[in-house]
Each structure stands twice: as structure tokens, then as C-alpha cells.
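Lecture 7 notes. Example A: sequence first, then its C-alpha cells.
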Amino acid sequence: MTRGEAALSSLGIPESEWNSRSAIVDRADVGPRGFFQRVPEAKAGKNRVHLDIRVAPEMSGDERMAALESEAARLAKGGATRRWRVEPDGAMENGFIVMADPEGNEFCLD
């Protein structure tokens, strides 16, 4: 099993759906993990793929959201735009921030 397949497996994604999602992982486990997934809704702009950038692994609650806010602020200085924030709900959602690159392509800080 590759590291990407291991990441998909650890997220509980059935092997039958691995062709609809992909993960990029740092071989040294130092850098962030990139996660690509197909989404059912149509996109009216340039995005052809949805990116989730993991910046707060193993964090939860206020600590997680503070790490996401810090990364959102750093990216905004480089030209990204903050779109919206989804709060953790304690059950199914860990919380994330939707951003857009300078061309308007959306990605999530996870």
C-alpha cells in the first residue's frame, strides 16, 4: 500500500472509491498533506479539482481553528482571499476555512 493509499484508508474511504480521491503526503512526514477529491456539484469558474490543504493535523477545537486562522492570514498576505469559515460541530465536522487563490480557484484549509 502506498502512503497515499494509506492516507485514504486512514480517512475511512473505501478502496472502491480511491479513484475519486487522492492524497499527496510528504515522505518525511514533515510537510502538509494535500487531498484531492471529486465533488458532485458543477463549478462555474476555473476549478476542475477541489483542494483540501491539511495544516492542523491532530488538532481540534480552538487550537485547530487558531492554526487555520494563522495559515489563512499568512496566505492572504500572498494574495489569497478568505471566503468563509465552517465551525467545528463536535460530531461530524472538525472545522475548516475556504480560501481562494488570486484567480478565484477555491481550496480549503483543513
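Example B, a different protein, same format:
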Amino acid sequence: MTRAGGFTLVEVLVALAITAMALGAGLKASGALTDNAQRLGDVTAAHWCADNALVGMRLAQQFPGTGEAEFACNQLGRDLRGLLRTQTTPNPNFRRVDSVVMDAQGHVLATLSTVVGRY
């Protein structure tokens, strides 16, 4: 009596388990790439907003007073909000200005700093 060729049930189940683990790892990796791409877009838009706020302050050619001022920005279809913090420096002819950009939930996406001199 000859045996018929083929795979046993155990061999088929082992092959299915290995395939399932490989597919699960692939899905997890592709999900991480998608999240990273979204984060990169958010941070890029936030940097543009922060930079625009600092350039606007420089173009005003006025020596900024100390304190905080809020601003809104829309970049790449994202509504972001920002905060300009102006602080004194040891030299009274200069001010340090921090532009902090946050998402709708209040998470800080980007912070840019500059020093503005008296014009």
C-alpha cells in the first residue's frame, strides 16, 4: 500500500501561523510609517507657522514689549494656534522671542526662538 503525497494538517497549520505572524508584522510596520508621515506633516506646518510669526515681528520693525501674544495659523489645511513669548535679555537693546506652535489639543509641535534688536 502506497501513501498519498501531500501535507499533514499540522504542517498546514504551522505554515498558516508563520504567514499570519509575517502579515501582522507588515501591517504594524506600515501603520508606523503612516503615523510618522502624519507627524512629519504636522511638524512641518508648525515650523512654517512659527517662522511666519517671527518674520512678521521682524517686518513690523518695532521693538517688542515683553509678554505673551497668541496667534492663529492655517497651513496645509491644518488649523494651528501659536504663542509668541517675548522676554528680556541681559542687554536692554535685545529681546528674546519664542514662537510656540500647538495643535488643537494643545500639544506643542514646534518651538522657534530668535533675538530681536532695537531698530
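Note on Example B: The radius of gyration is 27 Å. The chain has one domain: 9-117.
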